[in-house]
Amino acid sequence: MPAFKTLDHLTDIAGKRVLVRVDLNVPVADGKVTDKTRIERVAPTILELSKKGAKVILLAHFGRPKGAPVADMSLSLITSSVEEVLGHTVHFASEAIGTPAADAVAAMKNGDILLLENTRFHKGEETNDAAFVTELAKNGDIYVNDAFSAAHRAHASTEGLARHLPAYAGRTMQAELEALEKGLGAPARPVVAIVGGAKVSSKIDLLMNLVKKVDALVIGGGMANTFLAARGTNVGKSLCEHDLAETAKQIMIEAATAGCAIVLPEDGVIAREFKANAENEVVDINAIPEDAMVLDVGPKSVEAIKGWISRAETLVWNGPLGAFEIAPFDKATVAAAQHAAECTKSGKLVSVAGGGDTVAALNHAGVADDFTYISTAGGAFLEWMEGKVLPGVAILHEHK
Ligand code: AMP
């Protein structure tokens, strides 16, 4: 049983006004939504509530308008895309509060869906202002949060409302929390984490938290160079944060204390230019030439990483193992991702991935549908992996 209420608890809601916080922060180019994934993710919650006869009132932010209306950040621009994905009429109110919202809500019939204008057109949204929360709450009897990706922020529509109204997790929020619980909350052991990407500096909290929770931490990507250099390996011209040597050592000490194995590359694919199809070769990690840089982990390392994945019951993954955007330096990421996908498909592995470039890297590897769960939640996913409390989630737990 989850430690929060879900839509399963909302049975008798015909005619009730349900304020649903969703993530509709979709990319738009030339007035067209270029990726509807986020709308697709929240569709099940919206349609379930509508079918149950609720008046479904959608709250969302769009871009960063900084507390005042900005024409090209109006949610009216994406209303037709939301209608298309839902296969259902979506009404629009020109303000999230005040007369426009109240009138639009008053006109709703059971099962109707209404999208309120960008909550961030009001300063009170990001400051979680009590008066703004009260205004929002006037239009609802019940609050549902389906925007995990915004749950790391204590804003009026992500946290404040849950203090005023009975609060429930939507289906996407529920799926995300259940997957994260399987990944790091109460995972089947052994748990292996793969962390890659460019720099240690952006992932210190993440690494510090993981070494306390997982049985092995595989470090790849540019950040592996910082760890190798801290250990005394010459990394040539590789991307490396030499000033973080002490931090890297501290992470290795914490890992040793917690009994977490740190897995660093044994070999690397080196090049002299950071560009696609640059001349490259595989070298032992202790033989990196002065004038070369490591752009991917080498084949021996890939075999070792695959071995760790095979022995794991649970895998959490953030960040590519190499510069995956430029061939052939995507090889290690693709091979490891495909192996994780195979282990997952055969029922031996729970695999949870997310954050920033990870989704793009796993899409590139063609395994997006084969992992147990891939979070598109960026910042919220990372903060959760860092062991931080997400205000939008914590408040739902208070309603259990
Ligand atoms: P992050 O956003 O921190 O997960 O970093 C992702 C970026 O790290 C991608 O753009 C990769 O190209 C880059 N990256 C991964 N490995 C390396 C490497 N060995 N050298 C330079 N950049 C890398």
From TrEMBL:
Binding-site residues, substrate: 23-25, 38, 61-64, 120, 153
GO terms assigned for molecular function: ADP binding; ATP binding; phosphoglycerate kinase activity
Keywords, sorted A to Z: ATP-binding, Cytoplasm, Glycolysis, Kinase, Nucleotide-binding, Transferase
Main subcellular location of this protein, as a coarse class: cytoplasm
One matching Pfam family: PGK
PROSITE patterns: PGLYCERATE_KINASE
Protein name (Swiss-Prot/TrEMBL): Phosphoglycerate kinase
Protein species of origin: Agrobacterium bohemicum
